[in-house]
Design a protein that fits this description.
Elements lengths: L3 E10 L2 E11 L4 E5 L6 H8 L7 E6 L2 E2 L4 H5 L2 E4 L11 H11 L6 H10 L4 H4 L8 H14 L4 E5 L7 H16 L3 E6 L2 H7 L2 E6 L2 E6 L6 H12 L2
Parallel strand pairs: 3-8, 3-9, 6-7, 7-8
Antiparallel strand pairs: 1-2, 1-4, 4-5, 9-10
Helix pairs in contact: 3-4, 3-6, 4-6, 6-7
The structure holds adenosine-5'-triphosphate (ATP).
Adenosine-5'-triphosphate binds next to strand 2 and helix 1.
GO molecular function, one term: ATP hydrolysis activity
InterPro entries: AAA+_ATPase, ABC_transporter-like_ATP-bd, ABC_transporter-like_CS, ABC_Transporter_VariousFunc, P-loop_NTPase
Protein name: ABC transporter ATP-binding protein
Length: 235
């Protein structure tokens, strides 16, 4: 079964058409990169999956649940990592993880919490520090640990590597790949062609409200990938 199935999705804002017949299917363990320039509809796509927006036409299905009709049930399967993961500033990473997982109805002991954060790449020292001292990459690690604790089937990432230095970005790729290897489906909205090449199993270029290309990045180098992207932008 598809973890995510978007079928003929149309979404307008007034006279502006953001999505125009978008089809997107994602299975367990797959990393899909959604590429598109500013205003292409990436955030709209994510908001539809989360059920924050409803499509004018078409269906958004998450693990067999209609995200527009049952957004709360659909969201139980989803972990969303926004560009800036919001954490309680004065609480440590460890306490943030335990707090957010408690909200999700889970009970994690200190040992398991620390293990999850370590798997997400946060050092033991950092786990005990207040989150206000964290970089963007460290916040994301806590977000990913929360997603793993909840056994989310679908991970949504919005511009995950923008503003990360190359080593944080590589570390992030490693953690996302590990999540995918455990069966999580990953949808990543991004401009980062370099990371895509390393991390994504499939790349879609969002153009005129649809996924215009579905590319296997392994078959292309960065230059060819960039070329396809630029060609799409100019048509
Ligand atoms: N709430 C809204 N009201 C009106 N127009 C909107 C709204 N949300 C999005 N749009 C329009 O829909 C289109 C798609 O926007 P969206 O934010 O999904 O693009 P994006 O690919 O995420 O862009 P960016 O890379 O800048 O974040 C744009 O033309 C945008 O102006």
């Amino acid at each position: 079964m598809n973890v995510l199935a978007m079928t003929n999705v149309q979404k307008k804002f007034g006279a502006r058409t953001a999505l125009d017949g978008l089809d997107l299917k994602l299975s367990s363990g797959e990393v899909f990169a959604l590429l598109g320039p500013n205003g292409a509809g990436k955030t709209t796509t994510i908001n539809l999956i989360l059920g924050f927006l409803k499509a004018d036409v078409g269906v958004v299905d998450v693990c067999g649940i209609d995200a527009a009709l049952e957004p709360l049930r659909a969201r139980q399967h989803i972990a969303y990592i926004p560009e800036q993961v919001a954490l309680y500033a004065t609480m440590s990473g460890l306490d943030n993880l335990r707090y957010f997982t408690t909200l999700a109805g889970l009970t994690l002991d200190a040992e398991r919490s620390s293990e999850l954060l370590t798997e997400a790449g946060l050092t033991l020292e950092a786990q005990h520090r207040p989150a206000q001292s964290y970089s963007k990459g460290m916040r994301q690690k806590v977000g990913i640990a929360i997603a793993m604790a909840r056994s989310a089937k679908l991970l949504l990432l919005d511009e995950p590597t923008s503003g990360l230095d190359p080593s944080a970005s590589a570390e992030f790729s490693r953690v996302v790949r590990a999540a995918a290897d455990r069966g999580t489906a990953v949808l990543m909205a991004t401009h980062d062609l370099y990371r895509i090449k390393e991390l994504a199993d499939r790349v879609g270029v969002l153009h005129r409200g649809r996924v215009a290309e579905d590319i296997d990045p392994a078959a292309l180098d960065h230059v060819a990938l960039e070329q396809i992207y630029m060609e799409r932008l100019s048509t």
